[in-house]
UniProtKB/TrEMBL annotation:
<dbReference type="InterPro" id="IPR001387">
    <property type="entry name" value="Cro/C1-type_HTH"/>
</dbReference>
<protein>
    <submittedName>
        <fullName>Helix-turn-helix transcriptional regulator</fullName>
    </submittedName>
</protein>
<dbReference type="InterPro" id="IPR043917">
    <property type="entry name" value="DUF5753"/>
</dbReference>
<dbReference type="Pfam" id="PF13560">
    <property type="entry name" value="HTH_31"/>
</dbReference>
<feature type="domain" description="DUF5753">
    <location>
        <begin position="93"/>
        <end position="264"/>
    </location>
</feature>
<dbReference type="InterPro" id="IPR010982">
    <property type="entry name" value="Lambda_DNA-bd_dom_sf"/>
</dbReference>
<dbReference type="Pfam" id="PF19054">
    <property type="entry name" value="DUF5753"/>
</dbReference>
Amino acid sequence: MAGQESLDPDRSMWDFIAVELHRQRRLRGVSGAQLARIIGRDRSIVSRIESGKIPMQLDHAEIIDREWDLDRLFTRLVSFAKDRKEGDWRIGTLAEQEARATRIRMWEIGLVSGLLQTPEYARAAFAVGLVSDLDRAVETRLSRQAAVFERERPPEVSVILNWVVLEQPVGSPEIMRAQLAKLLEVGELPHVSVRVLPKEAGAHVGYDGSLKLLTVDARDMAYSDTPHGAGLVTDPKDVLDFQVRYDRIGVLAAPTGPSRAMIQDAMEKYR
């Protein structure tokens, strides 16, 4: 089937589901159109699932298991795929997806995004955590940055920073000045937007935590950045929740011009 040659069932749970669905369908001599009628959808949905363009939905998995007497095979696979977190064999790591993304949107509540950090800022941020090898952690972060920004065709990047990011010192005043200068420099790139959410915005949905949205192969996924639940999210319904949160934060953020002025003003405080 067209598109299946690009799937990697050894690394991706969703790719495995797509390949197995195609195998089970061919095994039974069922056409894509016939399977579409079974799940109550049109033929294009089956094609997109089998080519890995969209994930199988749980209700479709339940119908297929029942109709083909598969003892909850696809129901279990879809449930496992939805529950797995960053670094598993479902979708790879966050860094891998960043390196492939054509669009990256980020909301940062307390720190400069890792993709925009200077080496000194990154080291200072890592130093207050539980990182045992600072050199390796900083090197890994810089490698992630290079994979995104040093590509021949870098992605469109939109960043919204909470005002706290500018006010909260991380490292020395010199480190902070250099970091803010880098934000101004990166913000001048034609494919990068850096905006600031001002203090005057008050309470908002962004206080639920930092988030990242990535567009990879024309499919959106999200990254939830919490200490005990960080992970990539691919289910369309869950991703939509992240998109709504990001859009609501974006409405409150200052435009790029005033945001640059806010960053420049903050730099003066670190002399």
